[in-house]
Design brief:
The complex is a heterodimer of chains A (about 250) and B (about 325).
Chain A (H helix, E strand, L loop, with lengths): L1 E5 L2 E3 L7 E2 L4 E2 L6 E3 L1 H18 L2 E8 L4 H10 L3 E6 L5 H12 L6 E5 L10 H9 L3 E11 L2 E8 L2 E8 L2 E5 L11 H9 L2 E5 L7 E8 L7 E2 L5 H11 L4
Parallel strand pairs in A: 1-6, 1-8, 6-7, 7-13, 8-12, 9-12
Antiparallel strand pairs in A: 2-5, 3-4, 9-10, 10-11
Chain B lengths: L1 E6 L1 E2 L2 E2 L1 H16 L3 E7 L8 H5 L4 E5 L9 H15 L3 E5 L2 H14 L2 E6 L4 E3 L2 E8 L4 E7 L4 E5 L15 E4 L11 E8 L11 E5 L10 H10 L2 E4 L1 H5 L20 E5 L5 H4 L7 E6 L12 E4 L2 H19 L1
Helix pairs in contact in B: 3-4, 5-8
The chains are: A alpha/beta (about 250), B alpha/beta (about 325).
The structure holds flavin-adenine dinucleotide (FAD) and adenosine monophosphate.
Adenosine monophosphate binds next to α1, β6, α3, β8 and α4 of chain A.
Chain lengths: ~250, ~325
């Protein structure tokens, strides 16, 4: 089994979000980055589990600049065999997906795994775009993945329920909670990661189709109106007359 | 020339989110002096489609074919791109939900479209510059994107706008015959398990949610009674679904689903940032917690400090009274 796991990075979930350059750029100063949790906890760990039972290799791929090498090394420490970084600013999902597709097209991966979405930009589009570019089947929001002979058996979330699908490999799967349990890299893994291959490739020069012009912070809520615990009636009145939601 | 909206049916009715998307498409079409065509994939017999017309579609196309049943993006996108060609559509609107996460990005790659998922506002279109705002950083901020490609795909975040139906609007309904010869899906459905919940959480306007403060699954009765009285869906925090007190599909937050109902009542939930990420788009938030220092109060519109086991039944009773006084 040859598995490709696409990893993105995101600011740690407790990061205070700030912008700079006239609100046109996310301010990365002092921000701690993590591997996007869906990619690390679910896609990568499930890929490693499959490799451990079925044999094969797990390659991690990241489209981004050299500042991401720390996160890539962490994926190697968790257990990926090798890593590839396509050296380009990942600022447009269509661009990222096409770069990944260009890389993967002649490498005969059996599975291409991505996360459900990046927790920073919440796009959930890169996986589907990779599949579309490569003309491969796509299964979104998978919560369980098993392999039976040459088929992937995938449980995934659908509108108001779940569905179990079967699909011949190769295919692209976006991974969500439930697929695996997060792993913490151990000392041996961290040592091994230092010497594992991290190949840096130039961009394939794919087209960018969107451009981020401006950011704005969502105003938080002003102040909370407290209601006495004895006076439930007042809450109902406020929800009806003031908030007008019931 | 028309703006194409992909509409869906659930439980024998057009989904509310699809009506929102049709309203949205209508507003875009008006800016571009075009009309709206709605496309429905799958079985439509017995379903009243008129509301799509009232929401702004001047043409409804229904495409039903056995091959569409597996939900395979490849097959569905073949139909959508054929319809796009027939209708000369350059703007395609989806609702940002489970199905569109499967289909819209695949379509984007096939037709070389820039895509903006989770759009929260109408686009601004001036001198050919197409700008649209989307939610980023789990609702903490918005980003304005410029779509530079000729074909544009927008996925509207549900509950961004109230649905407006105009009974004077008219539409035609036509059957569309999909051309799927030679295309076979590699994806086969083994099993479908639909939840029996009467209200679908992502679309719900009212949500009652509870966390670890409830102590155990046997205590959810008070939550369900309040939800039933309100006509609300139920949700929960992550630890609650992790321990198996509540089903996985009720988990909201960063790693669960993101919702933005009109009313979110959080009971015995501390308000961790990862929980807020999934609910801070709600219009009104009520927090019930016995700890006055619970961080959730900082993100709430209304708060009650106290024991959920005493307060929730009182709210349910007050609501019953209120409802009977309304009649
Ligand atoms: C990367 C990451 C992703 C995460 N994703 C999510 C996510 O998607 N969704 C999510 O919910 N969490 C998520 N979490 C977990 C999150 O950080 C919190 O741990 C979790 O939300 C806490 O759940 P809780 O509020 O139910 O429990 P607790 O934090 O234990 O809070 C229980 C609350 O109940 C109150 N309480 C106790 N008894 C009563 C009573 N009798 N009456 C009233 N109030 C009472 C307490 O005062 C307390 O505030 C994530 C964490 C990480 C690190
Ligand atoms: N720059 C990137 N490099 C590699 N993979 C990425 C990148 N950006 C996104 N992905 C993958 O695509 C998934 C969905 O991302 P998105 O569509 O941006 O929400 C992520 O969880 C990753 O698996």
């Amino acid at each position: 089994m040859k598995i490709l796991v696409c990893i993105s990075k995101a600011p740690d979930t407790t990061t205070k979000i700030l912008f700079k350059d006239n609100d046109s750029v996310f301010n990365e100063d002092g921000v701690t980055f993590i591997i996007n949790p869906y990619d690390e906890w679910y896609a990568l760990v499930r890929a490693l589990e499959l490799k451990e039972t079925l044999g094969g290799t797990v390659t991690v791929l990241h489209v981004g600049l050299a500042s991401s090498d720390t996160e890539i090394r962490k994926a190697l420490a968790i257990g990926a065999d090798d890593a590839v970084r396509i050296d380009a600013e990942p600022n447009d999902a269509s661009f990222v997906a096409k770069e990944i597709a260009e890389f993967a097209k002649d490498k005969s991966f059996d599975l291409i795994l991505v996360g459900k979405e990046t927790i920073s930009f919440n796009g959930a589009t890169v996986g589907g775009q990779i599949a579309g570019s490569l003309d491969l089947p796509f299964i979104s929001l998978a919560t369980k993945l098993d392999i039976e002979s040459n088929n992937a058996i995938v449980e995934h979330d659908i509108d108001g329920g779940i569905e179990v699908l079967e699909c011949e490999m190769p295919l692209v799967i976006s991974c969500s909670k439930g697929m695996a349990e997060a792993r913490i890299p151990n000392m041996r893994g961290i040592m091994a990661a230092r010497t594992k291959p991290l190949l840096v490739l130039p961009s394939f020069g794919s087209q960018r189709l969107t451009n981020t012009i401006k950011y704005s912070l969502n105003p938080g809520r002003t102040t909370c109106k407290f209601i006495d615990a004895e006076n439930a009636q007042q809450l109902i009145e406020l929800l009806h007359n003031e908030a007008k939601v019931i | 020339m028309s703006v194409l909206v992909i509409a869906e049916i659930s439980k024998g009715k057009i989904k509310k989110a699809s009506l929102e998307a049709t309203n949205y498409a209508f507003q875009i079409a008006s800016q571009l002096s075009k009309t709206v065509t709605a496309l429905i994939l799958g079985e439509t017999s017995g379903v009243n489609l008129d509301d799509l017309g009232k929401a702004g579609a001047s043409k409804i196309l229904t495409a039903n074919d056995k091959k569409l049943e597996s939900g395979d993006a490849k097959i569905i996108c073949k139909v959508i791109s054929d319809v796009m060609a027939q209708e000369s559509s350059e703007v395609i609107v989806f609702s940002h939900d489970f199905n569109s996460k499967n289909i819209a990005p695949y379509l984007a790659a096939k037709v070389n479209a820039g895509i903006v998922p989770a759009a929260v506002d109408f686009p601004s279109i001036e001198n050919g510059v197409f700008l649209v705002k989307k939610n980023v950083f789990s609702g903490k901020a918005n980003a304005t994107y410029q779509i530079e490609s000729a074909i544009k795909i927008l996925c509207l975040l549900p509950n961004s706008f109230p649905v407006e139906l105009d009974k004077n609007k008219e539409c035609v309904i036509e059957q569309y015959t999909a051309q799927l010869d030679g295309l076979e899906s590699k994806i086969k459905i083994r099993e479908t398990k639909k939840s029996s919940d009467s209200i679908n959480l992502p679309e719900a306007e009212l949500v009652v949610s509870a966390g670890r403060g409830l102590k155990g699954p046997e205590n959810w009765g008070i939550i369900e009674e309040l939800a039933t009285e309100l006509g609300a869906a139920t949700a929960c925090s992550r630890p609650v679904s992790d321990i198996g007190w509540r089903p996985h599909h009720e988990h909201v937050g960063q790693t669960g689903i993101a919702i933005r109902p009109n009313l979110y009542i959080a009971i015995g939930i501390s308000g961790a940032i990862q929980h807020l990420a999934g609910v801070n788009g709600s219009k009104t938030i009520v927090v019930i917690n016995k700890d006055p220092e619970a961080p959730f109060f900082k993100a709430a519109d209304y708060g009650i400090i106290g024991d959920a086991f005493e307060i929730v039944p009182k709210i349910t009773a007050a609501l019953k009274n209120f409802k009977s006084s309304q009649h």
